[in-house]
Amino acid sequence: MKEIHHWIDGKEYKGTSGRFADVFNPATGEVQARVSLATKAELDDAIARAADAQVAWGATNPQRRARVMMEFVRLINRDMDKMAEVLSSEHGKTFPDAKGDIQRGLEVIEFCIGAPHLLKGDFTDSAGPGIDMYSMRQPLGVVAGITPFNFPAMIPLWKIGPALAAGNAMILKPSERDPSVPLMLAELLKEAGLPDGVLQVVNGDKDSVDAILDNEVVQAVGFVGSTPIAQYIYERAAATGKRAQCFGGAKNHMIIMPDADMDKAADALIGAGYGAAGERCMAISVAVPVGEKTADALIEKLVPRIEALKVGPWTAGDDVDYGPVVTKAAKENILRLVQSGVDQGAELVVDGRDFSLQGYEDGFFVGPHLFDRVTPDMDIYKQEIFGPVLSTVRAGSYEEAIKLAIDHEYGNGTAIFTRDGDTARDFANRINIGMVGINVPIPVPLAYHTFGGWKKSGFGDLNQHGPDAFRFYTRTKTVTARWPSGIKEGGEFNFKAME
Ligand code: NAD
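That is the input. Now the predicted structure with nicotinamide-adenine-dinucleotide docked in place:
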């Protein structure tokens, strides 16, 4: 059986815990490798070595650090296909989608090439008589990134890029379900010129995460994953005085106004609801058509599109719309929630429960589902399903529709489809959700803006990537300086008596 270990001090480090987690091929259901789970002692050691390495890295001028990022960009592009194949084989997403996963991470590394500009401080000349004042952005030291299974390239890259470009060392704890791509990225960074020890990739589970949280050398934690764990990490990190930004789950609503282009809205819902088998924190999982006529027209357009979806293994390339979900447990959880929807009275318009793929009977495939007449008291509305299941909640008016999204406990992303600028503008202004799409179903901001949800979708301050990331991974020091009059007055040659 293939074993996956850690990356410490610029080389593979074989874990000694004797504890492993299975890494599946979700398309076949087979265990394809096992990943070592680090002990607290291994974590503490990796952190101490990172702290040593950070001193010289933090003192390296920002432009030299940026050049490592520049070379990293070239190498990621060189190895894109190789990494995408590994990513698909562990995660299950289609090959084009795996390339998208890497691409959206790569864009943040490209942004980090501009780090020297973002790290510039502020200066006030003559803040008082003979006094200047300046603020510097300094690295925090050792920081940690703890990342989820669903974007095994993009989210580690969102963490690594800004943290390292700002002069920190990083402990990256990727998801134990698809750990290979983060290790490949670490290897590429070494090839790009990153000094050993500045990025340590340590695989593990809750024990490893707790070791990071309790280690006082670690100054900041960037987490992405489910809401209960995000909240737990935020609280425990704060208890040891760490900076923490912890992004959680989602339930993203898309409002469809009666004036929307119904074909475009239906196409958008197919991609945003079922792409990546719904395993995206920005997936649309709730459609809210406004008015009965809109709802009927939307369902009529959605059904044939959903029935035409092609579900299969990533090896089928472009011929597949989405692949299996990540584990058997994830599949069972999705089917359990679908059953709860039926039991609680929602109308299952497209039923994917019996889906099976010839030759892949043991794979973790889930057929597409569409619910109509879902109500806010149902579990399928309240909980994140994280699968290919779209729920339709019919709203009587725009006010009723926006209230649904406002009242939901999650606040990651949302969208509105309309031709009316006034409605769209009102929606964007009033909605209490971090990322908003207007006729755009998955409004993931580009690298130079910031990414982050509100309410139970995000704990802590500042967002991921964009300028916020450089604020998160640096701290400000402000110097007030007054110099005594110096040699410009000319030399004094007389021995002065005290007055
Ligand atoms: P998860 O919470 O199970 O795992 C995330 C990370 O936390 C992993 O590294 C895992 O090893 C670790 N972990 C798991 N259980 C832990 C515990 N008890 N204590 C400490 N650490 C623990 O999430 P996942 O299933 O890997 O990812 C899917 C979730 O991530 C979804 O809820 C999705 O919405 C969310 N997500 C959010 C965003 C966002 O930006 N808001 C982006 C991607 C994914």
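The chain has two domains: 2-248+457-481, 252-438.
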